[in-house]
Amino acid sequence: MEQSSAFAETSSAESSNSGVSWAAVLAGAAASVALTLLLLSFGAGMGFAVVSPWGGPRASSTTFEIGTGLFFIVMAMISSAMGGYLAGRLRSKWVGLHTDEVAFRDTAHGFLAWAVASVIGAVLLATPATFITGGALSGATQGAANSAQNSPMNGYADVLLRSDNRTDQQSLADTRGEVVRLLTTDFRQGNDINTVDHDYLVKLVASRTGLTQPEAEKRVNDVIAQAKDGLEKARKAAMHIAIWLTLSLFVGALCAALAAWEGGGTRDGTWGRSAVRQTTPRTV
Asked: What digits encode the pLDDT tens for the residues 194-214?
């Protein structure tokens, strides 16, 4: 009878408490977001210190890409582990639960802290992160950015219409705009320039630069090849960054869950079971 009444009291006490300590989850998520912003600003500063727009020895694009991906993973591990640990350490203590259930709830708190931090980070960190990276890049290349246009095809249009013998370069503005629109439209619709536009570009370059027909055709083919190579590199870079970000999210979720398990076990004195081991005297 005494055991039944004790079990009933434990069950009623356990059922009256929520399985999720939202205050602990939000606290862990806030800490994770703040730490992510701190590490992001540090990583942006280190990245601009390594990559330079000027000549001289510098890291290759592949090295920089891999380094950025590894930094994303390390950043996710540190920030998610801190947020998960706080969520597990600060959660309400549950009474009358099996050890496996406590472990599940602890890991769930870490996962929830990671999920909330990811959602908040996607909303709140977009503006400061863009400001940090965009402001640093703008300050480093301000002189070049003042004369640059928005479309990435402007550089290719300049190469197509370049001429050492022309004195009316200012009158090429309309022609340059036409070339940019033509290249942008064709590459947006497919991965190459159609035959009609290709022939038109050859005639346009020949008439505006004074080149012969074969020379103009060679210049057009070379510029189109450069544009296709640049677009392909940009596509691969975006794909690789997306893969690194996805991997960092998975690693962050795992680290948050494991850290919350440790934090909850430390709070209850059951982590490693060193605190609950008691030496019982031997009876002879």
From this structure: 888 888 888 888 887 788 888
